[in-house]
Amino acid sequence: MKKVCGLDVHKDSIFCAIYNGENYSQVKEFSTMTPNIYSMGEYLQSEDVEDVALESTGIYWIAVWDLLYEMGFNLTLVNPYFIKQMPGRKSDVKDAQWIATLLHKGMMRGSFVPPPVIQELRVYSRKQGKLKQQVTRVLTVMDGILVKSGIRASSCLSSITTKSFQCIVEALIAGWSDPGYLVSLVYGNRKNKQSGKLKEALTGNLKAHHRQELSWAKQEYEMYQVQISECLSEMRRICDEHFSVMVKLLQTIPGISQVAAMTIIAETGGDMSVFESSDKIVGWAGLRPRNDESAGKYKSTATTKGNKYLRSILVQASWAASRMKGSFFKDKFQRLAMRKPRKKALIAIARKLLVVIWNVLQYAKEYNPTLVPVQDPVKMKARLAYHKKEYEKAANLLNITV
Predict the structure, then answer these.
(1) Domains of the chain, residue spans
(2) Closest Cα to residue 114, out of 82, 69, 57?
(3) Separation between Cα atoms, residue 269 and residue 256, nearest integer Å
(4) For residue 286, is it left (φ>0), alpha (ψ between -120 and 50) or beta?
(5) What kind of architecture, by CATH, is found in domain 4-105?
(6) Each residue of 253-279: pLDDT tens digit?
């Protein structure tokens, strides 16, 4: 008889239940220490178990998964939400047996776990995303220090992320405080220079402790920049070695930069065969509208939960795609933004972008803008007929001869 194993993983313990379709073996408890996980794997091998299932409990499942994966087991990771038992008495032993039962009956829907190389790429990808958030935080801290000292650089500069802002901060840390000199460090902004507004904004009362705070913030900023550079370097190394073709294909899509392409591969794995259709990956990313209907009424159309990292990079790419002249995405965004909030329109563009990404990677073909023309002749004809009909209605109401 085929034997399967269900694991109930906790922070300090793992409950292991083996099921052959008729009987359960004695449920054993193992520690989550690495030697004990190896011992558990050897025990399963001695029992001729090949298929193992475990719940995605926080981060505790990862070490167990990695070690058992290296030992050659067929693993299934499942969301605890989808394998809830009937209400009643609950224990760790029963949980492990229930997982084994569902696996043996083929009633489990496994979660997507990417291969090791994608997991490595994902570590660098997510780290650089978090580091960018820290950079934004540090820049806000710098601006706050300047505001406390009466210097309003952010009121005149286009952004605190510009090179001009960094030059001003470096000069202030070095001891310069002359507004005229600080103005000379600003790139462009001629109008404000001529009007004297920028000179007024850069006039303040910077004290010694303000300079010290700025110095600390600047050191933190530079540290994050170095780490971001290292993460991107590792991402490029992995992609050049394993996913160079995919990166080039993704960059043919409007709004997709090299970093965005690498991030998309890190989150999706690049292998679109994992997702049966573009609808599946859209739902997995959390970009599909909900369909909460009751008694013929729709109660909510908010997007579902999904991969927040993939959704974030797609929204960023959508902003870029919606600004590219002559692209389908810009035309679609402008039409959607006329009847709904711009942020909702952007989510719709992100969804369409993901559908294009799925097709580009699935069929290994470059993005072809002629397949999604900006102005579809059939739709244009229907739109003109609609507006003509509406115009005639308005003319009849106002007794105007058309």
Answers:
(1) 4-105, 118-241, 244-371, 375-402
(2) 69
(3) 17
(4) left
(5) 2-Layer Sandwich (3.30)
(6) 999 999 999 999 999 999 999 898 999
